[in-house]
Amino acid sequence: AKSSGREGYAFYVQELTDYARQRVELASSLRHALDNQELRVYYQPLHDLRDGHMVGMEALVRWQHPQRGLVPPAEFIPMAEENGMIAAIDAWVLEQACRQMVSWNAEGSSLRFVAVNISSRLFSRGELDQKVARVLAETGLPAGQLELEVTESAIMEDPDAALRFLTRLRALGVRLAIDDFGTGYSSLARLKRLPVDKLKIDQSFVRGLPEDTDDAAIARAVIALGHSLGLKVLAEGIEAPRQVEFLRELGCDYGQGYHYGRPLPAQRRTGDHPEGPSP
Ligand code: C2E
Ligand code: CA
Ligand code: CA
Ligand code: CA
């Protein structure tokens, strides 16, 4: 038993070093992913809960790794935040999403806006608002058609910096949404002062709906809170028609989730090439 424990330990150490080596390799290949055009932007529809109409699209980044295949953002965004690549990645996604929205507009689409995720690591950097202004000017996208999503926990890491950051972005005329709402412990006093338009209820509170009474209580409270502050409320992670019904009855404004559609490349979103190949 002793020796197998030892082997187990050795095995564990080997696994750890493999894991560490893989992470280092992945991190260094991430540095070239942008240059090698391995990043992709997928789009997931956002719907009006009342009439069911599609109102917007959220841009979600993917990494088409030459060996590993499609790597989800949970596996490289934290890495990109650590090694500083996140600024370049978010800026690239922002530009792609704005260009895509301009081309949807040109196709006569009735989409009102495109939503882009912004990492908390960019709060302390002064240049993001200038970057946003430049991308809007270069692409010709009206500022009101761009929504930026910032997580509640990012805001709560440094609420004063977040307030300044969001105020500068808001001055450009873009829309602002608080992502993953309900997981970041905002105080009401803080929330009231933030120049935002929308709360996105985190999917962890939507998953158990309609049966889970805790989730139902949280969803009801967030919707009431958002509306009392004059904000729109979107529920993330809607997978079942019963959840749509339930949230609609609670007065929730918008919804997003596999029930409406999974994230897909833009070519497969427009309807022009429903069976078209991936890029
Ligand atoms: P998020 O912003 O909360 O995005 C929603 C996530 O939920 C997406 O995962 C989406 O694919 C997934 N989702 C949507 N509907 C459903 C559903 O009905 N059921 C379930 N189980 N999941 C659903 P994804 O694309 O893997 O992205 C994960 C996170 O990575 C995002 O969470 C966001 O925080 C981050 N992320 C993605 N793209 C970017 C980006 O361009 N920049 C930054 N900074 N972060 C990004
Ligand atoms: Ca988001
Ligand atoms: Ca979210
Ligand atoms: Ca529960």
TrEMBL record:
Region described as Disordered: 261-279
Residues in EAL domain copies: 23-277
Signal peptide extent: none
Name used for this protein in its record: Phosphodiesterase DibA
Name of the gene this protein is made from: dibA
Coverage span on the entire protein: 479 to 757 of 766
